[in-house]
Amino acid sequence: MTLAGIYAEQKNNMKAIESRLEKALEAPHPILHEASMNLLRAGGKRIRPLLALISAQYGDPKRPEIIDSAATLELIHMASLVHDDVIDDSDLRRGKPTVKAQWDNRVAMYTGDFIFARAIELISGFDRPEAHRILSRVIRDLSLGEIDQIKELYNWKQNLRCYLLRIKRKTAILMALSCQLGALSSGCTLAVSRRLYYYGYFLGMSYQITDDILDFVGTEKQLGKPAGSDLRNGNVTLPTYYALQKNELHDRIVGILKSENPSEDDWKRVISLIKESGAIQASERLSDRYLQKAKNILDELPVKKATRSLMEIAEYVGKRRY
Amino acid sequence: MTVREEIESIYANLRRDLSHPYVSKYLPIPEIDKDKLLVYYYLFQKRSGKRTEVYVESLMVAEIGLSTHESMTTERLNGKKEIKKRQLTALSGDFYSALYYYYLSRKKDIEMVKWVAEAIQTFNVNKCLLFYPKHTLSWTQAVAALETIESALVAKIADRLGLKHWVPFLNAFFLGKKLVSEYELQAQNDSRSFLCNYLIESLTHDSVSFRERLEAEIKKTKARFFDSIRQAEENSGTLFELLPYLTEKMNAFCRLTVEEG
């Protein structure tokens, strides 16, 4: 089955999630309402809700709390995006003005906090203490991961472990949680939900590494922001890390990065150096290794349609180009 | 443990939980509102009479998360250090807000999680109402929004814990406290007084000065506070532990400004 086929199969559930999101984002203030609705309309792949829906197939997929759990995950993701745009000082997301650009940083703070509170309110109807314990830990770790990212900005000497821990907290744990929460909402066994957690975790690691590769190889049109944006913001991602390991390139790259005000030509030069260093291929290899780990977990799950769908999602993550 | 020791222990725990080693390099440890801490302590004492540390800490970190985001600046920044401070303001606020859910889910009190989440929504809606109104707010509307903001969380919790008769005097107390703080900032021409800046602008064509209005509002709020205290005492004679503290504080606020100013 193709990814499009998986979405088609989940069409009714995805529609239910969209409608739950729309209801959750209704706000009794015009700016708050418009800011939230703009985020909803900007769309996105809704990969987290999709993972939750498929994981729920290992239990009873008709339980009503599955839709609430899936919508909660997307709301948490949305709230974090609004605040991320303040942190990164981004004016555009998916080619559209960000909340902070359309209004200001304060509105972005209020909107993100409002959406986050809506997410918590929505999931509070889920009567399973284990799920809340896991979700609350992940939310706490997400913010700690973001603080770590700020801490490591412009640190050209950081090691691989530091990068991996950062992307784990930034992306992988929310994907892992999506699978686990979907499974727990469906009432499936703890053993299966734990395996699904690890599938989501390895998938998320591969997903973020791919994102970091695309930041170098994608076009501005595909990315909705200039190529090399992470690097321009001082964020050392995997391709930069690998390029910096090459002695013959290290000083040239760091020299440019440390200069007072790098010109656009400087940025193009440093991006080229990284792209031509073999760092992209090395990053792809590590991404593939995580993907393979995700696929291996699937061997431990019951052979059923959901397992095939998760395999398809893993294939998609491996091939995605934007 | 005496009440004082318990409060000090909660305060120390909060200081520990709020001090992230990296964030502390750039931002001061957030201020802990001792009045709110004490009110939460007595609210939960009234509820269960048992040890209430986790509840008080959870509510306080939620309050601190919200007030941390209040210090978010809007102007364009160029300096790396200033940018980092702004980034950490957003992220540390998120971290503190995450902690209340983390603590309460370990207590398995998801109903309380829901109340806090609802109160946070009320807070943010009223912030937008006050600072981004569709039409210019009247003085009365602005003060009403400010009152909701200042006690959004504490009033919600009091109400849900079955202490509805506490809500009027808590509202008046925290509004009074905020108005006095705005009065002091305005007297010093301190630009941090966002409220003053906003209200002065909206009252430009008013014959009564901003300062006079604020003084009158503080007096009115003080009277309302004592009135609601009397009513609360009629409903429940069990407020005596908290009352002397709050009344003394309210009197002190007002002595500092209106009556001596």
From TrEMBL, chain A:
Gene3D superfamilies, per the entry: Farnesyl Diphosphate Synthase (1.10.600.10)
Keyword match Lyase: no
Cofactors: Mg(2+)
CDD domains hit by this protein: Trans_IPPS_HT (cd00685)
Listed transmembrane segments: none
Pfam families: polyprenyl_synt (PF00348)
GO terms, biological process: isoprenoid biosynthetic process
Keyword terms of this UniProt record: Magnesium, Metal-binding, Transferase
SUPFAM superfamilies per record: Terpenoid synthases (SSF48576)
Molecular function per GO: metal ion binding; prenyltransferase activity
Record-stated family: Belongs to the FPP/GGPP synthase family.
Protein name listed in UniProt: Heptaprenyl diphosphate synthase component 2
UniProt lineage: Bacteria, Bacillati, Bacillota, Bacilli, Bacillales
TrEMBL record, chain B:
InterPro entries: HEPPP_synth_su1
Protein name: Heptaprenyl diphosphate synthase
Any one Gene Ontology BP term: menaquinone biosynthetic process
Species this chain originates from: Sporolactobacillus putidus
Domain of life: Bacteria
